[in-house]
Amino acid sequence: MHVPEEIRAEAAALIDHHALGLWKPSDADRRAAVSLYRFLETGVPLTSEQIRAALAHAEPPAGLHERLLTLLDGTALLLDDAAVADSPAGRDAVDHVCLLLDALALSRLSGQ
């Protein structure tokens, strides 16, 4: 999955599942989100290298929720294709992934 519309839809679905309590992120999910959130806090746009580095350091990577792992892998592939990533649909997809990362990271930071 690295089509912008699919990434956006999956990120939106995971945001909804998290907000409704249908998905309880694991510690591995939250650690990966916090790692990427720290990159986002710098104001620098998310890159495929940042995603791959966060996934490489996930403890253990198998502990990540399958949908989140697939979404992050797809987002990295999307970001590798500059023309698609810079399109309106690509930017919207990445924005939704960033919103998901924010939600996961902040829920961990606030103890929810």
Summarize the helices and strands and which ones pair or pack:
Elements: H1 4-19, H2 27-41, H3 48-56, H4 66-80, H5 82-85, H6 88-109
Mind describing the biggest β-sheet? none
From the structure provided, what is the oligomeric state, counting identical versus distinct chains?
A: single chain
Order of helices and strands: HHHHHH
How much of the sequence lies in strands comes to under 5%
Counting DSSP E segments of at least 2 residues, the number of strands comes to 0
What's the end-to-end separation, in Å?
30 Å
Give me some keywords for this one.
112 residues; mainly alpha; 6 helices
Task: Give your account of this protein's structure.
The protein is an all-alpha fold and about 110 residues long. It is about 70% helix and about 0% strand. Helix 2 (about 25-40) packs antiparallel against helix 3, helix 2 packs across helix 6 and helix 4 crosses helix 6 (about 90-110). It is globular, with a radius of gyration of 13 Å. It starts with a helix and ends with a helix. The mean pLDDT is about 90.
What is the compact description of this entry?
It is built from six helices and no strands. With about 110 residues, it is mostly helical.
